[in-house]
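As a warm-up, study this chain.
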Amino acid sequence: MISQPNPGHPSRLFSIAVAAATALLLTLGMPGRIGWWPLLFIALTPLLSAVRRLPPMRSGCMGLFCGLLYNIGLLYWIVIVLGRYGGLPPWISVPGMALLALYMGSYFALFCLLLNLVIRRSGSGKGSTARLVLAAPILWVGLDFLRNFLFSGFPWMDLGYGLYRQPLLIQAADLGGHQLVTFCIVLLNSLLVWLVDRFPNRVSGTVVTRRIPAVIACVLLACVGGYSFLRFQQVSSAMETGQQTAVGVVQGNISQDEKWTAARKEDTVNRYLALSRNTLENQNVDLLVWPETALPFYPQQDPLMGKVFDFVQDENVKLLTGAPYFVLKTQKKAGLKPVDYFNSGLLINSSGKLAGRYDKQHLVPFGEYVPIRSYLPFLEPLVVSVGDFTAGSTYEPLQAGNIKVGVLICFESIFPEISRREVEAGSN
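Now compare it with the structure written out below.
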């Protein structure tokens, strides 16, 4: 039976302050301008501590406000994409970003609501905090998993990604993916809440079961941490003795609103060729990598592609580059596009020949295609300006010599199942 709410609930101002504090700590801890990752281990403690002190609906509203603030800080770039590159006015692009942030924030709301209901079933004493220890990470990761698939999936900035520069801490991801890393981050936050709640008001330890979740949490964290440490040593040793390929990465840093103009096409190619020659002069490289759409034209029909092929052949190097690509349909049907356009990765072998093509499979909603656009006619300018791409369908690696490349293009890097399937298909 769910216990009745405590009449002495904190004020609404308290809920707003807690939501803002957690949103700020998360924003500062996640990759970005600050990216101070240790904050992730305490960022959720204000929210978790407050959830059990509020009625369910207040908890949900607090979570929604927190999620909205946090995701606005992460998704501000949507306004730039829709406005500068999609040609949409601010009165469409800003609400569009806000709606996406609101959708992402709804998972925070659902998390706080469900967690509140779970811990209230154990009453308002120590048992409520004890139950929170394990319930919080389970609910958080469960909702993350749902967000990975719902509405084509948008697992943007899951907490586990915040530790991407700390390889010693994330090796257990080979057991449970980045979700296991997220689980441990939330588990540590909830364990801190339990500790803070317990020590100022120590009571008789007769109810041993109230300590069991905390003991389980400590054991889990110790096991994951120990495994990660040992696995890091194994990986480091394997990297020293394993097969090696020297890769040179070239980034032209050309503004998006300049690279697609006809006047800048040749300048763009020349910049990449000059940077690549400089790279090859200073180091021995087996594979050069240029970024997504480094070539701002269709390779099949632009004479500038000949300069790229000649460069690769003259330098005797392999090149992986991004470029748009189109395929004419052999069978034309009424109501369907006669041409499929792809956001592709092209592998050019050292003979100056195209060795393979990978087409991006997980496209960016409202960036590379418009979902249910027949119901959203006001977004048609976005399709014209940004693109209406077709998703690829193969995980086969691009092969040149002993190099078998598994390609992830931009947005795809947050979907681990793609890289997993590419490795299973033979990518090395």
